[in-house]
Design a protein that fits this description.
Radius of gyration: 24 Å
Structural class: alpha/beta
Largest sheet: 8 strands, parallel
Number of strands: 18
Distance between the termini: 43 Å
Helix content: 25-40%
Strand order of the largest sheet: 16-15-14-13-12-11-18-17
Shape: globular
Strand content: 15-25%
Length: 511
């Protein structure tokens, strides 16, 4: 058994291990670059920081990641994306910052040479120190080694004073330490509780949204700070058989009229679905789904009211996702989190759009089977199963900074499970955080609107009569930490969201 499992039963039990690990973390000090390269012939785990404040910053990140992959650096994890005020030299544009974790057989100085070449190829020139740059790539950690040479110091010497470096660095880890290498990284901080303690000394989560540093997600042509307010996603079903409003909006004119209404009532996003995902629904082909979807999507794109609004496509087919994004959709909303189409992750990674990964067992026709409804602890199991899907998505090239998570209320859940999830959103985040702080920080979407469990509790067999119960469930979810709510009735729920947001702001101001 790994000695970490013996010494770290608790999620943040870093202190006891970092003390014993300091002796096992290799240290060497070389003035010659060649000797270091010769020592490191095995595959090593590395952490690389990214920064950009010139040109299309997000494109610069994407290009740098592609060039790293081509150069022998296999990216396994991505931090969140941060927009930050410049430091040291303050008269320059705001930066995007993040970090990635990967493995490579490149030696440390060989790796440094590759990163410097990428910077040069992307247009970085010798300028003032800490000045503007299209891309900045720094080695934060290289395996379990300390490295000192004329041109390279690892760990990077300024990690400990820079929140915009330390925040994405921690994103690459979990609150539970999973390997000897990560224990060594914590020990390099010199603090009993490792990097966690260093982060808290700098200000921790209180820095996010303040001190010129915010966590953002790319949405269309903008960067979205989802902490500012809860976003409302209006549902547009183009199906004849959806449980709530099937058949109402199949014509283009009816669909456009409904979008007009939802936007006028304050919707931030419109989620368009052309395949029913109600329990026991039969699947239709991607081609039939596109026949329903594309005419409506094209018409919505032409609506003046949709300027600065977002369109999400609700599909588990990669072909539909690709075509919809080419026609102007901004987000892919996949109820299967990639489990129903093996090409979905690869396609979404290439599309470079946000990806909503939802928890579901089976498919809509089987998700309510008895086997799929068995849970010992629904919040913990949903978190574990959802993270497993997100991890696969990330390994396929969808960065954590493009992920939105959805616990899948009503999908392979009984009434009691849905209630536990609504009351346990913070538990789900905490469970995910044990494995990935980046994914735990992701925006969370909930969609209890008019679902069957509300009808069972309130004795409302008709879905259209469940709006009051929907408002109550949405309010609970927002107060528990949901960032996006997916609803049929925008008007009533947007009032609930505004009230909940005000309560949350008030709560924070009283602390």
């Amino acid at each position: 058994m790994n000695f970490l499992n013996l010494l770290l039963p608790a999620k943040r039990g870093v202190g006891a291990v970092t003390k014993c690990c300091r002796a096992t973390c290799s240290s060497f000090f070389h003035s010659s670059t060649e000797s270091s390269v010769e020592v490191h012939s095995q595959e090593q785990e590395v952490v690389i920081a990214l920064g950009s404040n010139v040109g299309d910053r997000l494109h610069n990140f994407n290009e740098a990641l592609l060039l790293m992959k081509k150069s022998g650096i296999n990216i396994t994890r991505h931090g969140c994306l941060y927009e930050t005020e410049p430091v040291y030299v303050t008269d320059q544009p705001r930066f995007l910052n993040s970090a990635v974790r990967g493995v490579t057989k490149l030696g440390p100085h060989e790796l440094l040479g590759i990163l410097k070449k990428i910077e040069k190829d992307m247009g970085r020139t010798v300028g003032i120190r800490y000045g503007p740059r299209p891309i900045d790539l720094d080695i934060l950690f290289y395996g379990r080694f300390r490295i000192h040479s004329e041109i390279l110091t690892v760990p990077h010497e300024r990690i400990w004073e820079r929140p915009f470096v330390l925040a994405p660095l921690l994103d690459l880890m979990g609150s539970a330490v999973e390997s000897d290498t990560v224990v060594c990284w914590h020990s390099f901080s010199g603090q009993p509780n490792g990097l966690f303690e260093m982060w808290e000394k700098l200000g921790g989560e209180s820095l996010i949204g303040k001190e010129g540093m915010k966590r953002v997600l790319p949405l269309g042509d903008r960067l979205w700070d989802w902490s500012e307010k809860t976003s409302v996603m209006g549902i547009l079903n183009l199906t004849p058989d959806s449980f709530s409003d099937g058949g109402k909006f199949q014509s283009v004119d009816a669909a456009i009229s409904q979008v007009h209404l939802m936007i006028s009532e304050g919707a931030d996003m419109i989620d368009i679905g052309a395949q029913s995902t109600r329990p026991y629904a039969a699947l239709i082909s991607a081609e039939e789904e596109l026949e329903r979807l594309i005419p409506v999507l094209e018409a919505i794109q032409k609506m003046p009211e949709m300027e600065r609004k977002l369109i999400s496509v609700d599909t588990f087919y990669s072909k539909v996702a690709s075509e919809a994004v080419s026609k102007g959709a901004h987000i892919v909303n996949d109820v299967s989190a990639g489990s129903l189409d093996p090409d979905m992750y690869r396609v979404v990674a290439a599309l470079k759009v946000p990806y909503i990964a939802m928890h579901m067992r089976g498919d809509p026709s089987t998700m309510q089977n008895e086997e799929n409804l068995k849970y010992d602890d629904v919040c913990k199991q949903v978190a574990s199963e959802l993270y497993s899907r997100v991890k696969d998505a990330e390994l396929s090239g969808i960065p954590a900074w493009r992920i939105i998570i959805d616990p899948g209320i009503g999908f392979s859940k009984k009434t009691k499970h849905n209630l536990d999830i609504l009351l346990g959103l913070s538990t789900i985040r905490k469970e995910i955080a044990s494995k990935s702080l980046a994914v735990s920080h992701a925006p969370m979407l909930i969609g209890p609107s008019r679902k069957r469990f509300l009808g069972e509790i309130c004795n409302r067999p008709s879905a259209a009569e469940r709006d009051p119960a929907t408002v109550a469930s949405i309010s609970t979810g927002v107060l528990e930490g949901a960032n996006i709510v997916r609803v049929h009735n925008v008007r009533d729920n947007i009032d609930a969201v505004k009230l909940c947001d005000s309560m949350l702001i008030r709560r924070r101001s009283c602390r």
